[in-house]
Specification:
Blueprint (H helix, E strand, L loop, with lengths): L4 E9 L11 E3 L2 H4 L5 E8 L9 H18 L6 E3 L3 E3 L5 E8 L3 H6 L3 H4 L15 E8 L4 E8 L5 H15 L12 H4 L19 E9 H11 L8 H16 L9 E9 L17 E6 L2 E3 L4 E3 L1 H9 L3 H7 L3 H16 L2 E8 L17 E3 L8 E6 L5 E9 H7 L3 H4 L6 H5 L3
Parallel strand pairs: 6-7, 10-14, 14-16
Antiparallel strand pairs: 1-6, 2-5, 3-8, 3-15, 4-5, 7-8, 9-17, 10-11, 12-13, 16-17
Length: about 425
């Protein structure tokens, strides 16, 4: 539970050096154009530090100075989006907000409640206009700090989000070996006319519940063994995706629409699949969503989820990326799928995995975060996977309609594999 939060200051942090005139217009790519308009948000929780140097004033000055320097590297993020077509890199800056939290950090993360995490956000996730980045630094009574970073999905994917945060942290701690971002996604995926495409399809604000379910390595191993009957060596994400989708279908079986196709969507990073491969520091929306349809065995009422999922992801190769650069065919596909979703002919269930991403590398000089969390998302039927802070399991953040979550969170087969919150065990401060 997040206690009372009081905002004590609001200001704007601008880049430490002006953006050159020839970099003033940053063209959004086709993949940026079709990305949904919401903020990606993470909250990085840091325990109290015994070193008296790391007081409120020191942390504030260090964060603002290093953020300013980092914005010079990531110069488009200090600008403003114009007509969802380009960024005016005008160095207008980033909102930097500070707040006091009347409580203990340990109580907030012991058994976190996603809708309470929103109290630590500077803005609502769907309140995306022309602003690209916003930061809120929350100081707890105990001396702990929670840093919230919001970045618009219109200009970045999850990998680029972490590149920005980790570069900021590296700058703050004085690391001289900081890899600069590589821009130019519009050259690879040129913008096109996307008139008629609704980027907000599927976004909702009301009646969504988010829960965090933690799976230990032993539980994941059991699931991998279970699904090995139908596919060779299922990965952790494949096994967890299949398990959560089948449990969801089990709890909503009385409400299943026989005329609707129930689909599974996965986000795929395109950087390593391009030819030649793109570096990890290539900035922008360099990822796409692929769709699969689980096959059903009528006799025993079971589903094969992993094979169709694996086949769909395998098709995302260099040829797929090359074809994606043309834009129009993929846009027509998205429009068709969007219409099917709106008419109820298809029911999506989406997964995105941040496992093995450098989530816990954001050390600003006073140590790595003890936990990274997020609040309720703007989509239903969405699952986000992240590694646990100790690396001994995976957290699944599940977003469902309230009525579906009420049944899902009580499912006995699900709960038999869910572990207690690892945060409660690791709070040694």
């Amino acid at each position: 539970m997040v206690p009372e939060v009081e905002v004590i200051s609001r200001e704007t942090v601008k880049p430490s050096s002006p953006t050159p005139d020839h970099f003033r217009r940053y063209q959004l790519s086709f993949l940026d154009q079709i990305s949904p308009p919401f903020y990606m948000a993470m909250v990085f929780f840091y325990p109290p530090n015994a070193d008296s140097r790391f007081n409120h004033t020191y942390i504030t000055n260090k964060l603002k100075q290093s953020l300013s320097e980092n914005l010079s590297r990531f110069y488009p993020l200090a600008g403003r989006v114009k007509d969802e077509f380009y960024i005016d890199c005008n160095d207008e800056g980033v909102p930097y907000i500070e707040a006091l939290v009347k409580g203990q950090l340990s109580e907030t993360i012991r058994d976190p409640v996603p809708k309470e995490i929103h109290k630590l956000y500077p803005y609502q996730l769907d309140d995306v206009k022309d602003l690209i980045v916003a930061v809120q630094v929350n100081f707890f009574d105990c001396g702990g700090v929670a840093i919230t970073v919001l970045i618009s999905h219109k200009v970045a994917d999850g990998f680029s989000y972490l590149q920005f945060v980790n570069s900021w942290a590296a700058n703050a701690r004085g690391d001289g070996d900081i890899v600069r971002p590589q821009f130019g996604s519009a050259a690879l995926f040129p913008p096109i006319n996307v008139a008629g495409f609704k980027t907000r399809t599927g976004m909702v604000k009301e009646n969504i519940e988010t829960r965090r379910f933690v799976f230990s390595n032993s539980s994941i191993a059991a699931l991998r063994a279970k699904f090995s009957d139908s596919v060779s060596h299922p990965t952790r994400v494949e096994a967890l995706s299949a398990f959560l989708w089948t449990r969801y279908m089990a709890v909503i079986k009385d409400d299943v629409n026989p005329n609707s196709i129930y689909t599974v969507l996965h986000t795929v990073n395109l950087r390593s699949r391009a030819e030649p491969p793109l570096p990890d520091h290539f900035f922008g929306n360099i990822s796409r969503i692929v769709m699969s349809v689980p096959s059903r065995n009528i006799e025993n009422e079971s589903y094969d989820v992993v094979n169709p999922m694996r086949d769909a992801i395998k098709k995302v190769d260099s040829e797929y990326v090359t074809k994606l650069r043309e834009g129009k065919e993929h846009l027509d596909f998205l429009k068709d799928i969007g219409h099917r979703f709106l008419r109820g002919e298809a029911a999506p269930f989406s997964f995105t995995s941040l496992c093995r991403f450098p989530l816990y590398e954001a050390d600003f000089g006073w140590g790595k975060p003890v936990w990274i969390g997020s609040g309720r998302r703007t989509y239903r039927n969405l699952v986000t996977f992240v590694d646990t802070s100790s690396g001994d399991g995976i957290e699944a953040w599940v977003n469902l309609k309230e009525a579906d979550m009420a049944k899902f969170e009580k499912d006995k087969e699900l709960l038999s594999l869910v572990s207690p919150s690892p945060n409660a065990e690791n709070l040694q401060f």
